[in-house]
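In this supplementary section we document a worked example of the pipeline. Step one takes a protein sequence of length 320 as its only input; no multiple sequence alignment statistics are reported here. Step two produces a three-dimensional model, which step three serialises into structure tokens for compact storage. The input and output of this example are shown verbatim.
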Amino acid sequence: MGADRSYAYGAAAGLLGDLLLGDPRRGHPVAVFGRAATAVEGALWRDHRGWGTLHTVVCAGGAVALGTVAARAVRPSPAASAALTAAAVWSVVGGTSLAREARTIGQALERGDVEAARERLPHLCGRDPQALDADGIARAVVESVAENTSDAVVGALVWGAVAGVPGLLGFRAVNTLDAMVGHTSPRYRRYGWASARLDDVAGWPGARLTAVLAAVAGPDPRGALRAWRTDARKHPSPNAGPVEASFAGALGVRLGGTLSYGGRVEHRPVLGGDTGRAVRVTDIDRAVRLSRRVGLLALGTTVAARLLVTSVKGLKGRGK
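The serialised model returned by step three reads:
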């Protein structure tokens, strides 16, 4: 079994583990990383970009270094390499938890229990739940499913295909740091600048692949491509824009508009507004199903691309 086949088998096993088991209830590696990053922040925090950059380098670099050491340690054994890849994929991919949280909120809304949905929404995104009615909550959930399909599934698989276990751990570290310090609160406006910018760079390829696969897997491919082409650039995030626009067009709904974060109201452009309708509660399950299909297609696409690149390199090597 070659290194690339070990990766392919491990990645498939890891995604299957996420589908069947979801995230571990205790001792999740991402939570462990978060506690370590918080400790580093406690030692380094200054209201300065340079110190924030150091924080990013220490935390993200440490995750990459750990992955590199572990991958080298198991390299002589293809079975051990596949097992390490499976464990890494299972640890960093969060598709099942994403689907579970979204459906829990959707079920509360279907029962008419808006308060229960508001209580659960912070588990999924950072919106102010008290400012949202049932339709607003449903829209927030669909937007979060779309964005997190890229952040929690596809982006990790892309970097895993590029760099193996170090890529998997590094991407998840960068994405987690952005969630922790990358927002524009007074404390993190300067300190979190490097984490936010690095997350934009790391998330770029996964976001575009997610948008493509949403168009392929969704019920309205033309609508997805049209919304991506016309609306994505209107979004303030360079990566969330293509993903949310493609999901909006694929599902035939309107996303974006007025929202509230931490008491701050934002008026974002509408995505999919040319032909889309307002989001309904039933669209939550449709978005989850689309997210699942995109994740499976991303696994096949990234593994096939890795195997193809290796084969081409091998042919060129023999040609010399």
